[in-house]
Write a structure and sequence with these properties.
It is a single chain. The protein has helices at residues 24-30, 36-39, 54-69, 93-104, 126-136, 149-154, 172-185, 212-221, 245-251, 262-265, 327-345, 349-353, and strands at residues 82-87, 108-112, 139-144, 161-166, 200-205, 228-234, 256-259, 271-274, 277-280, 283-286, 304-306. By secondary structure, the protein is of the alpha/beta class. The strands form three sheets. Strands 7-6-5-8-11 form a five-stranded parallel β-sheet. Helix 8 (212-221) links the parallel strand 5 (200-205) and strand 6 (228-234). The protein is globular. Bound molecules: phosphoric acid mono(formamide)ester (CP).
Length: 359
């Protein structure tokens, strides 16, 4: 087989960092630090985006921005703590960013990436697995294609469990990463009174009824209805919303419109959130793979694209080197927002916020 290394004539440099990384400072400056909303998260399970409110989200984003800008301040607050990382469905970003976050906070990890390597393959119940987890670790992060699995485990769990994606239901920490990206881009969107001219129009290319990332994101966006001029759901599918979903979001103040045409919606969109995958059982469905973005799309100048990734044909790689690429910054920020969440759940908030800057 031909060796590829002789083809590399120049020393190989890592690629430069992606856009969006310089922004956390603006977010820090726009929020007054307050540990109290995060103290509320101590020892809590995190199952749904419904568990967050504006104050918690803002303080999580602020702490994430501190972690992102000043990693030297991290004093290993989770030293001696063990995370059980149980992913019974494929994952690149969620598992690795949770594990990176826990490691960066000084903790240790036990990782399960295949349920067939555990007693589940012998018919062991999830309740019994949860009972064992109580003895072996201090927190569990779990992904399961069965949306009920996490709820079955909660009954037996005496340590916090975090939902890292349960079937088509929710992916609350992905939504935290999405909001962190949006607020880094425009910190003023967190304020009570966003001037009309600064409100943003968000397009969501996807199916809220069936995509857990979209379901959780919309719940968090509904905490900040003053920030969003309109939310345009763009899809060529029928039955976009699950029962009561649209009513709940509109009841919270989001203005929602449906569209079947991506190109006609794009010129007015400030944020385009695109995804075409929904996990169903042991495999995935592609929903809306015909709705595609590339440098040839009529994107509004200055608009940003978010994508939970993994991407398919819906998001062309030719956008990677454009101003619209905020999806890599979104994925990078997921480490820091998860560090903020883990710090809160493990009751290390005062330890972390007790810095020379905040004596
Ligand atoms: N965003 C997300 O959930 O990606 P993974 O499936 O790679 O974890």
């Amino acid at each position: 087989m031909k060796k590829l290394s002789p083809l590399l004539k120049e020393p190989v440099q890592p690629k430069a960092a992606t856009d969006g990384i310089e922004r956390p400072i603006g977010l820090i400056d726009s929020i007054t630090e307050n540990p109290d909303p995060l103290v509320d998260l101590a020892s809590r399970h995190i199952v749904s985006a419904r568990q967050f409110d504006c104050a918690k989200l803002m303080q999580l984003c602020r702490l994430a921005a501190v972690y992102e800008t000043t990693p030297a301040l991290v004093q290993a607050p989770l030293r001696g703590k063990i995370l059980i990382s149980a992913f019974y469905e494929p994952s690149t970003r969620t598992r690795l960013s949770f594990e990176s976050a826990w490691h960066r906070l000084g903790g240790d990890i036990m990782s399960i990436t295949d349920p067939a390597s555990t007693g589940i393959a012998k018919g062991e119940s999830l309740q019994d697995v949860a009972e064992m987890f109580n003895n072996y670790g201090d927190m569990v992060v779990i992904r399961d294609s069965n949306e009920h699995a996490i709820y079955d485990m909660l009954e037996a769990s005496r340590i916090p469990i975090i939902n890292a994606g349960n079937g088509t239901d929710e992916h609350p920490t992905q939504a935290l990463a999405d909001m962190y990206a949006i607020f880094k881009w425009r910190p003023e969107l967190m304020t009570d009174k966003v001037p009309a001219a600064r409100r943003v129009r968000v397009g969501i290319v996807g199916v809220p009824a069936r995509m857990r990332t979209v379901r959780s994101l919309l719940l968090l966006m509904a905490l900040f209805p003053q920030a969003f001029e309109e939310v345009v759901i763009i899809s060529d599918n029928d039955d976009l919303f699950s029962e009561g979903q649209r009513k709940e979001l509109e009841g919270a103040g989001l203005k929602i419109r449906e569209s079947t045409s991506l190109d006609s919606a794009l010129p007015d969109l400030d944020v385009v959130y695109i995804n075409s995958i929904a996990w169903v059982g042991d495999t995935y469905e592609e929903l809306g793979a015909n709705l595609q973005l590339s440098t040839g799309s009529p994107l509004k100048p200055g608009s940003i694209i978010l994508h939970p990734l993994a991407r398919g044909a819906e998001l062309s790689t030719d956008l990677d080197d454009t101003e619209h690429n905020w999806y890599f910054a979104q994925a990078r920020g997921a480490v820091f927002i998860r560090m903020a969440l883990l710090t809160s759940i493990t009751q290390r908030i005062h330890q972390v916020m007790d810095t020379p800057e905040n004596p």
